[in-house]
Specification:
alpha+beta; 18 helices; 768 residues; single chain; five-stranded antiparallel sheet
Length: 768
């Protein structure tokens, strides 16, 4: 079943609440009607609970009126709001209300007249006279039976005058048989039992007459009274096993003995059950008649209230049935109307489905199936669109993270889209020039025209040879005079996209070109070292031999010239030897023998060599004691430290030459935060590097010093590559101004099985 909307759930909750309240009120009304019926047959209950029952009747009637009024208000409000089906609900409610109210009102009027007249007819004079006559007849009958037993008891007492106390038991048995009594007892004046016959023999303490009765018997000679009728006449009391007449007579003695104690004969005889039942019935009928006569008005009001409550229940039931049946008939139409509005608004959520077996219920189910099919279709479309968006996002993410540059052009060479790699490789803000020609981008004029030309040639060659792409190398930002310091070498590939668009993919191969150039320089250095080193020693020896041969044979002026010339030759030969040695070191750098070494100890050993120099540059060390051993070649790392310290001192001296303050050089080691790398950093206070030098500082023969070959950083770079270390060169900035340069190398720990790539977070250069 479809999920209900919040509005439908609220409506359902309201209907449930109305149903529960209606059920409770109806149940209370039925219980009250039952209690009213019981009250009319129970005078005590009626008198005790009349006010309470009347108040509850008023409350229930008020609640019914309020519920009916609230239902009517809801129907009118729906009609004013123009809700679909409100007129039908009102019409059905009116029909059912008329069906229930009109007959109910007629029955109420007839019942009211009938009850009013019936109650008055109950209290007729003849009925009251008949009840009085029956009551008097019963009393006369009971009095006659009592007087008869009293006379017989007085006569029987004369038979006991001569009987002594010891033999009175047998005489009492004869008297019980003669009188057909249930019990015969002989008492003394003090209430002591002399003898007994009948049920008194089995009683430990038989009921004895009261002193008042003994006094009355002495005065009247005999008395009699009826027992058991008063208890049976009490309202709600169960009748005793048998009512009886009890007579008490004085026993006269034959001789006059003044000191003898008088005796009393007590005879108990049961009354006939029929007489007792009739007497009690007449007495009860007379009592009820008198009570109802006194409460005539209250009884009338109670019956009228019961009828009124019944009328309200019938009216409420009629209106409730009208609303319920009307809702059942109109609900499918309302569900369909609401569903149509939702679909028209684009809301394809599941609609309410009715489980009824009629045609309207089937129509709601068919509409829900149709809505579900539309929702499934839209969900499939949205899923497909989501997949397309995800694929587009993935493609865009891939393009954004590619190191290669990607540009999409139209047939005229207009830039349609680019990725960040294109901006990085071409060093131009291409995203700002989307929608413009590629050759209109500043600095890319010749490149753009060359690309357009390559695509035009590709169109011709593709039709002839079936090619699917073209590839060409370009050099950008070249000055045109030999090898430029800021030239960018790229390799580009072009292809045709569906729809006539053109795809241009290119990579920066400057580092590859630089590596090839370094390899070529190494070969040149090797050959130069071989070709130049051989004639240098003979030249130096010939000059020194010439100086020795001519010593003392020339004039002082000429001798000074010879000595100066020989010194110049020797010095230049030494310089050439140093140059050849540097060529040899760069070209024939041996393979690194990687072993665990203590970088801090190695730095300390190198710094001791500089401790006694008379250089004005201060040399400081900041060594991290947490640094573990690294994997490296001690001799080559020592060469790295020497080269970096020498370059740093030269840079610091160059800047402090014309200043009052002295420069400084700092050597720093640090364990990375991840604990996987150890960083070696050399910082100086020199003038820093120009931007174009920073890009090619590690290439051979690139230098800013007036003296030197520019092979120092190239050797450092080559050794770092052998160690799998990342080397970085940057300027130190303080308050936005260049305060020197720093070179950082990140080495793997000795526990690593292979050199860790240096392109990690730990390899980033530290700030000065």
């Amino acid at each position: 079943m479809a999920t209900l909307s919040p509005a439908a759930r609220r409506s359902r909750a309201v209907r449930w609440a109305i149903g529960v309240v209606a059920f409770l009120v109806s149940a209370i009304g039925l219980v009250l009607m039952f209690l009213l019926a019981q009250a009319t047959n129970n005078r005590a209950f009626y008198e005790q609970n009349y006010a309470r029952l009347f108040g509850i009747n008023v409350v229930v009637a008020t609640a019914l009126v309020l519920i009916i009024g609230w239902v009517a208000f809801r129907l009118l409000r729906r009609l004013q709001q123009g809700k679909f089906g409100s007129r039908l609900l009102i019409k059905l409610a009116a029909i059912f209300a008329l069906v229930g109210v009109v007959p109910g009102a007629l029955v109420y009027l007839v019942s009211y007249q009938f009850v009013a007249r019936s109650i008055e007819s109950w209290f007729d004079v003849k009925v009251e006279g008949a009840l009085d006559a029956g009551l008097n007849l019963g009393r006369a009958t009971l009095d006659s039976l009592s007087d008869d037993l009293m006379n017989k008891t007085r006569i029987a007492s004369a038979q006991l005058a001569e009987v002594p106390d010891t033999s009175s038991g047998l005489a009492l048995e004869r008297l019980r048989d003669q009188l057909d009594a249930s019990n015969v007892v002989l008492w003394t004046a003090s209430g002591q039992l002399i003898a007994g016959a009948g049920s008194s023999r089995f009683q430990l303490n038989p009921d004895r007459p009261t002193p008042q009765q003994f006094r009355q018997v002495r005065a009247d000679r005999a008395i009699a009274h009826i027992e058991g009728l008063d208890e049976a006449a009490a309202p709600g009391a169960a009748p005793p096993p048998a009512a009886s007449v009890r007579a008490l007579a004085l026993v006269q003695r034959a001789n006059f003995e003044f000191d003898a104690e008088p005796r009393f004969l007590q005879v108990t005889k049961p009354l006939p059950p029929a007489v007792v039942a009739n007497a009690l019935a007449v007495q009860e009928a007379n009592r009820e008649y008198q009570e109802r006569a006194l409460a005539r008005q209250g009884l009338r009001r109670m019956y009228i209230g019961t009828l009124t409550l019944t009328l309200f229940l019938s009216v409420f039931g009629a209106v409730l049935l009208a609303v319920l049946f009307g809702t059942q008939l109109a609900r499918p139409l309302l569900v369909l109307a609401d569903g149509v509005r939702q679909v028209a608004a684009g809301d394809l959520r599941p609609t309410t489905v009715l489980q009824s077996k009629d045609e309207l219920g089937g129509l709601t189910r068919s509409f829900a199936v149709m809505t579900q099919q539309l929702s499934d279709a839209r969900g499939a479309v949205e899923k497909t669109m989501g997949q397309l968006d995800a694929a587009r996002a993935n493609l865009q993410t891939i393009l954004d993270n590619l190191t290669s540059g990607v540009i999409v052009l139209d047939a005229a060479g207009t830039v349609l889209s680019t990725n960040p790699g294109a901006t990085r490789v071409l060093r131009a803000p291409l995203a700002a020039f989307e929608g413009q020609k590629l050759f209109d981008v500043p600095g890319l004029e010749s490149f753009g025209r060359a690309v357009v030309q390559q695509f035009e040639e590709f169109q011709i060659e593709r039709s002839q040879h079936g090619l699917d792409h073209w590839q060409h190398a370009f050099e950008l930002h070249a000055t045109g005079e030999g090898l430029s310091q800021d030239a960018v070498n790229i390799i580009a590939r072009g292809a045709e996209l569906p729809g006539g668009a053109r795809l241009l993919v290119f990579d920066d191969i400057s580092e590859i070109v630089s590596a090839q150039r370094a390899q070529a320089w190494g070969e040149v250095a090797r050959r130069l070292a071989h070709e130049i080193k051989n004639p240098l020693t003979p030249i130096q020896l010939s000059a020194e031999r010439l100086q020795i041969k001519l010593a003392g044979k020339l004039e002082p002026t000429e001798d000074a010239i010879v000595n100066k010339s020989v010194k110049t030759i020797v010095d230049q030969v030494d310089a050439m030897k140093r140059l050849v040695n540097e060529f040899r070191d760069y070209a024939r750098l041996p393979a690194a023998d990687l072993k665990p070494i203590d970088l801090n100890a190695l730095v300390g050993d190198v710094l001791q060599l500089y401790a006694h120099q008379s250089s004005p540059i201060a040399l400081h060390s900041e060594l991290d004691e947490r640094c573990p051993p690294i994997r490296g070649d001690a001799q080559q790392i020592r060469q790295i430290i020497h080269n970096l310290l020498q370059n740093a001192q030269d840079a610091a001296e160059a800047r402090s030459a014309g200043a009052d303050s002295h420069g400084e050089v700092i050597v720093r080691t640090r364990l990375a935060d991840s604990g996987q790398r150890v960083r070696l950093t050399v910082l100086d206070s020199g003038p820093g590097f120009a931007e174009k030098i920073l890009k090619r500082a590690f290439e051979p023969y690139v230098t800013t010093k007036t003296k030197g070959t520019g092979l120092g950083l190239a050797v450092v770079k080559k050794i770092a590559d052998e160690h799998g270390a990342r080397i970085e060169l940057s300027n130190r900035l303080v308050d936005g101004s260049v305060a020197g340069a720093q070179v950082s190398l990140s080495f793997a720990l000795a526990g690593e099985s292979r050199p860790v790539p240096a392109y990690t977070e730990d390899s980033k250069p530290s700030s000065a």
